[in-house]
Amino acid sequence: MSIFQHIKPAGKALFKDRYTTKAAELLTAWEEGKKGDIAIIGAPLSKPSISHSGASFAPDAIRRCLNSFTTYNIERGTDLAEDKKTIIDFGDISMHPTSIEESHQRIYESTKAVTETNAAPFTIILGGDHSITTSTIKAIKEMKGTVGIIQFDAHHDLRNTEDGGPMNGTPFRRLIEGGHIQGEHLIQIGIRNYANAKAYHDYAIKQGVTVYTMKDVRQQNMTKLIQESLAQLDSQVDTIYLSVDMDVLDQAYAPGCPAIGPGGMHPDTLTEAIQTALQHPKVHIMDIVEIDPTLDIRNMTSRVAALIIMETLVN
């Protein structure tokens, strides 16, 4: 009997049940030529955040939370492990210690590199704050052509860049003004009262951005709303990108977001929206941003993000 029989690899589940597979066991490190069902890569950047943010810790926190779930879906009667589903993990992009611009450049270059591998038909980028989205969408536009965006967010993220530079409140303005996307190719869902300045709502309307507020979310069927959004983008773009800012959720479900607030979405509504969007053949990539594990309560917010990853595997 080995003297190491009671020693487990660091980071693995504390207890192993012979009949249970944890979702984290679906993760496999990328190697040349390896293929999977989805790919993930971490973009642990939080320096450009307007407020205090430990979003740089989120990619690892989300991966750890996969150990909180099994691979069996009782409602569908399916098992991700039995179905041989795999997550190709590219690890995390190394951020520059002081330069935000260099960090954004590294995210751009890494997104292109991951896309070129064709390791999986769907890619998830784990932020980091929302400033990463400018870099990822610039890369996807170069690789895939015209990009349409469905953004789940409490905020427009259309702030001016003169007051604070390329921060986490500016990604979509930077994309529009840089000519990387057209305003009419951006659909925002979950925009919340008392969370935005009038000037930025006016800017959105002037640029042709489609804006659905939380009132729209409450009053409309989410599946129908997403289907209409996909149909709106389908004939105009080559690729549809989902950008999931977790502060679209109500603060009761996402206490680990730097900009929490009342009046937001329920996780089931967000999951329904993403599942519906994933049925469309032009939806190839998604980011999950704005989780600060240092503010979270029992990893509640990171667990929702981990669940989103699992639901992505089902499609």
How many discrete domains? 1
State the separation between the terminal residues, measured CA to CA: 44 Å
H/E element sequence: EEHEEEHEHEHEHEHHEHEH
Quaternary state of the chains = single chain
If you had to describe this structure to a student in words, what would you say it looks like?
There is one protein chain. This protein is of the alpha/beta class. It has a single domain, classed as 3-Layer(aba) Sandwich (Arginase, Chain A). Helices cover 32% and strands 17% of the residues. It is built from 9 helices and 11 strands. The protein has helices at residues 58-65, 100-117, 132-144, 171-177, 198-206, 214-219, 222-234, 267-277, 300-314; strands at residues 27-29, 38-43, 72-73, 78-79, 87-92, 122-127, 147-152, 186-191, 210-213, 239-245, 283-289. The strands form 2 sheets. A 9-stranded parallel β-sheet has the order 1-5-2-6-11-10-7-8-9, with helices on both faces. Strands 3-4 form a two-stranded antiparallel ribbon. It is globular. The chain starts with 26 loop residues before the first strand and ends with a helix.
What would a concise description of this structure say?
This protein is of the alpha/beta class and 315 residues long. It has helices at residues 58-65, 100-117, 132-144, 171-177, 198-206, 214-219, 222-234, 267-277, 300-314, and strands at residues 27-29, 38-43, 72-73, 78-79, 87-92, 122-127, 147-152, 186-191, 210-213, 239-245, 283-289.
Defining key terms:
single chain, 315 residues, alpha/beta, nine-stranded parallel β-sheet, two-stranded antiparallel sheet, 32% helix
